[in-house]
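re: that chain from earlier
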Amino acid sequence: MRGALLLGLLWLVSTSVARAQDVPASFDAVETMAAALAAQPYKETPSIQGDMRRLSYDQYRALRAKPDTALWREGKSLFRVEFFPAGFIYEKPVQIYVVENDKATPVAVGPDQFDFSDTGLKQPPQKIDLAGFKLTHPINLPDKFDEVASFLGATYFRVIGRGQVYGASARGLAIDTGIGKPEEFPFFKAFWLLKPADDALEMTVWALLDSPGVAGAYGFTIKPGARMVVDTKAVLYLRNDVQVLGVAPLTSMYFSGKSRPTPDDYRPEIHDSDGLFQSTGQGEPIWRALQNPSALNVSALQDNNPKGFGLLQRERDFERFQDTSANLQSRPSLWVEPSENWGDGEVRLIEIPSQSETNDNIAAFWVSHAPARKGERKQYLYRLSALKDEPALSPAGRVVATRTSAVPYAPKQRRMVIEFAGGTLPTLEPQQPVESDVSLTNAKMARTYVEALPWTRNWRLFIDFEPDGKNPVDMRAKLTLRGAPLTETWTSLHRP
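^ sequence. v structure.
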């Protein structure tokens, strides 16, 4: 009987039309569907065909939902929903349901709900499949609904807080990323949108994930504000063994920055994020400046029960970007905080060589050291935040610039210059005995020294080192005063 029920639920979510009373309207039911999916062989969702699939990037961007057709626009809800049609690279249709009074109703849209005027299509298609949706909310002005979240493509979603513009993205799950074989991209094949009360300041979305290796149920409670918060519950059922199960994955772009200015471009820096920040289970704050490397970089920052990690955009000065259209200085920092103990594992950072700012070449996610085996159920609870400022993440002095250069008269050496600001550093006089705590591998230390910058009250650390010429140099450094840490720990990977 139970097996028949599970198969029935799977049939419902795979069909384009279902009666409201037949569709599950609880997170437990979505989890049951995920378990049923994992117990069956994986079945690929068929792609759409026709003109919509052949749309170019520019044509798809020109295709917009009409604002006056937004879901919940006629009531007093502080949330509205606009839908993305399937097309372009988003060729897999998804099922979307609205949950109200514990009943789920499938969303159906027609071509009259979209503006095709700038797409170049001679006539709109008669049937519109859905690929995702976006949420709007009066986050900046009380009478204006601005976009605050978007779910579109595989398991990608983006969120922003007040005064921010889209930049780094989140994903539901990363599978076998950066290990020298094709990455597996899970897919949110169904969504449930829970209608909020008229005065509600948060909204809940459920999602059903599927892939050859994993099926899963996701719950997102979305809370817009100056700091956008998404409380996330992920329940995973493994259909097969998975080599790398990347939890709470983040994706971003780093093309150029202080360590490597943009070549032949008036914009000094081009990036959505400029560093990986980690707060370890032992309370150590760690900063890793991002790179656009010459070869693939895969770094593992070991930890036990991490307090948090994220891809941050620390640089907020327009002068450093000079891009009036991209507004890179307003891109969000994405921060992940586990809501329970995640045990022993690592924050894995992937940096991919890129020749274009249009490529997302940065990924970061949590990987447990416990193997991910077929038949297992795994659950992860965490909070994802999109923020513009980060004073609450760590009270210590923080890295504001990482620069590198040659060492005069020492052609075999390299110099790293790390600038720290904040914390108690501005209160220190230059004569204070500030010292450095530096370690490195696969290199000889030539010299280190610290200097105060009286113009800014910042402090600089210089590290001159000679690589062995064969292996990457892994470096760690922080400033101390009488043995006590003054700053977060700076880390970097230098390739010979």
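The longest helix spans residues 2-14.
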